[in-house]
Amino acid sequence: MEDGALPADGRRGCRGAVQLLGQSVERGDADPEVRAGLGLTRTAPNASTLGRLLARIDGDALDDAVGTWLARHAADPIEEDEALIGLAVDGKAVRGSRTDSKTAVHLLAAVLHASQTVIAQRQVAAKSNEIPAMAPLLARFNLRGVVVTADAMHTQRNTAKKIVAAGGHYLLVVKGNQKNLRRQLRRLSWRQMPVLDRTRTVGHGRREVRRLKVCTVEAGLLFPHAVQAIEIKRRRVSTKTGKVQTKTVYAVTSLTPDQADPARLAELIQGHWSVEALHHIRDVTYAEDASKIRTGNAPRAMATLRNLAIGLMRQAGWTNIAAASDHYRSRPDYATALLKITC
User: Fold this and answer.
1) Residues 139, 148, 81, 276: what is their CA dihedral angle, to the nearest 10 degrees?
2) What is the pLDDT along the chain (343 residues), one digit of tens a residue?
3) Residue 157: C-alpha distances to residues 47, 91, 209, 213, 227 (Å)
4) Are strands 206-216 and 197-203 parallel, antiparallel or unpaired?
5) Which of 83, 135, 161, 302 has the fewest CB within 10 Å, making it most exposed?
6) How far apart are CA 198 and CA 23, in angstroms?
7) pTM of the entire structure?
């Protein structure tokens, strides 16, 4: 199954989610055991109470609690032949939270590649503020066996040093903000190098072929702890128009050839780009950008709860989050089972 159509009531957004939760408990849809497991031993809170709670809740505390729980229960398993876990750092604006006098809530998150599970999140003032927020975000984890991936904004020397000092590895895209490094990468003899990995995908109205080349530079790369240089050529063809787009992307990594072969490097790169699918689910299935919830910390809290729901459903084996949401919406006892709530 793949993520598909919006569920029938999905466009109700955040307010609808709060109302459905409140109404479900008030009507008694939940079994007594479920209500007790949730701590609702007396009169259940109504939707307006839940709304005020979300607006006033401590966003950092909620993110820490949810992220820690998911990191413990939904972490990507380490297979015997795969001792590396991909962890993407990526930002997202909650566009519906913007008003004339207030900028949109912007969230920086750490996401496990394989399960698209957010295990840490922080709110930053704007996209440009993501850079100083990255190191504190990662400081909460033991990075041994972890490969941190990020877009070009986070290809920063201090960031790379801190990741390696914490025992982790990095795989970072290189663009114009590292001009000397990018110039060095572009001047390498890529034409004489063989393609070491080729990946073909079809979806989202396009066919895509990615060709990857890797090399070590004996003289060293102009970036701390960088061991290998990577060139990725992407060729996309629109299935509707036939339009062809080609793009060349460069990256550097602290991983040695013994630690990650070309196929594994390709997986890590694709794993980072696939985090866009998580944003798509939040926007389409949960209508995050269409939400008009703007009071206090409520936009951030609802984003955190969406992360929790998606992480739980991925952990349960669902690949179609829209279908999973429909499944659990009318089965609160099944939903609480995912949270491992027992009475």
Assistant:
1) 120
2) 333 332 333 333 334 334 334 444 444 456 676 666 666 666 666 778 888 888 899 999 999 999 998 888 755 554 444 578 999 999 998 888 887 667 889 999 999 998 889 999 999 987 778 999 999 999 988 899 999 999 999 999 999 999 999 999 999 999 999 999 999 999 999 999 999 999 998 877 889 999 999 999 877 899 999 999 999 999 999 988 999 999 999 999 999 999 999 999 999 999 998 788 899 899 999 999 888 888 888 999 999 999 999 999 998 889 899 999 999 888 877 887 877 654 4
3) 47, 19, 31, 23, 14
4) antiparallel
5) 83
6) 51
7) 0.83
Residue whose token pair is 């995908």: 201
Other C-beta atoms closer than 10 Å to the C-beta of 127 total: 14
Q: Could you give the CA distance from residue 163 to residue 119 in angstroms, rounded to a whole number?
A: 17
Backbone angles phi, psi at 214, to 5 degrees: -135, 145
Residue 31 tokens read as 């079994």
* Token pair of 333 as six digits: 């006892």
* Encoded amino acid at 43, one letter: T
